[in-house]
Amino acid sequence: MSNPSDWASKDFYKTLGVSKDASTDEIKKAYRRLARENHPDSNPGNKAAEERFKEVSEAYAVLSSAEKRKQYDEQRTLFGQFKGGFGGGGFGQPGGGYGGQNATDFDLSDLLGGIFGGGGRGGRRRPPQGRRGDDIETEATITFQQAVEGATLPLRMTSDEACPTCHGTGAKPGTVPKVCTKCQGSGMQTSASGGVFAMTEPCSQCRGRGLVVEHECATCRGTGRAPSSRTLQVRVPAGVKDGQKIRLKGKGGRGEGGAPDGDLFLLVHVEPHPMFGRKGDHLTITVPVAFDEAALGAQISVPTLDGPPVRLKVPAGTPSGRTFRAKGQGATTKAGTRGDLLVTVEVQVPTDLDDAQRAAVEALRQARGAATPRDGLFEEVGSA
Ligand SMILES: [Zn+2]
Ligand SMILES: [Zn+2]
To answer: 186 CA to middle of ligand 2, Å?
Structure first.
């Protein structure tokens, strides 16, 4: 019911009979009273009351939510400028919202295009007061490798923009919307059934828009808006971390009336890699080595993220957990240099020895004799 695209044409404050800076409490009270008065149960068969009940409910649904109310206020501010220019008998009146500019500088599509966004971009004159484009938040998941190397992602953005056929007027090309005869373009009407005090409501003929489209644009069916999607190529820099938010200036919602475009905030999720980890610009990997490799020394082959394996010399007597550094095999830094690959070796204890291996280990035990690696512990304790 309260589709944000309708908000510009509805004055929810008037519907509830409260001022624009009314507190949440005042809004609630006004709603309760009006809802009670117009409730279908107490007005059986009364279509007007039913209609009013719906309007009141819709107004309350929006104004009772702080977030929706804010959005609504922003849209109304915008619409107010438009109506200001239109109402009061003509364009360019002092205080009409486009103060200081000559009315003849505008044609209708400029005016409406500027309001509904998108139309009239580039080169044309614009009203001096615009509305900055919305900041948009979106998310993307990238692979570990893309995070390391940086990536260009195609991001499909959808938003409501001015209808490309009618440039936001809602009227069939070649025609323009007519100023509403019922409200003379003010968008408001005074209701007859207001009781003690007259109620001002959105005009029923133009639904508060102030304009009536006689020949609807076929593309947007007279709404002036059309969902538009564009694909942005977004560069995610090398070294981005999981959970990081990237701000892309000017890639958000379109600014209106000459105001700057909003920003796009991209929340990046990075898929973990089964083998590699990250430590700043360095990549990490843990590789298993056999006991004899650690004891006697070995040349081992270690995989890299994006190139051929590197050869690493494990010196004789390497303990489990020692970390070696393969220079330049890590992530690309902002400066364009590369971090290192930090290789941690983990000495594996065999669990499935065949006969020959068992014999060899037995022989090692024999050769060790009575000495154990723990002998030093007792010497330390004894001397204390
Ligand atoms: Zn259209
Ligand atoms: Zn009207």
So the answer is: 7
Cα 327 to ligand 1 centroid, rounded to whole Å: 60
Question: Which of 91, 81, 92 is CA-nearest to residue 115?
Answer: 81
CA 169-127-82 angle, to 5 degrees, is 50
Q: Are 292 and 286 in contact (CB under 8 A)?
A: no
Looking at all shown ligands, the one closest to residue 221's CA atom is 1
CATH of the domain at 319: 2.60.260.20
The answer to whether residue 377 sits within a structural domain is yes
For residue range 322-360, what is the model confidence (pLDDT) as tens digits? 999 999 888 776 677 888 999 999 999 989 999 999 999
CA 107 to ligand 1 center in whole angstroms? 17
Question: How many domains does the chain divide into?
Answer: 1
Q: pLDDT tens across 57-75, in order?
A: 888 888 888 888 887 887 7
Nearest to 115 by CA among 73, 162, 46, 156: 162
Query: Which residues constitute the domain of residue 356?
Result: 277-383
Q: Which residues surround ligand 1, an ion (CB under 5 A)?
A: 163, 165-166, 217, 219-220
Ligand 2 center from residue 11 Cα (angstroms): 13
**Contact between 309 and 250 (Cβ < 8 Å):** no
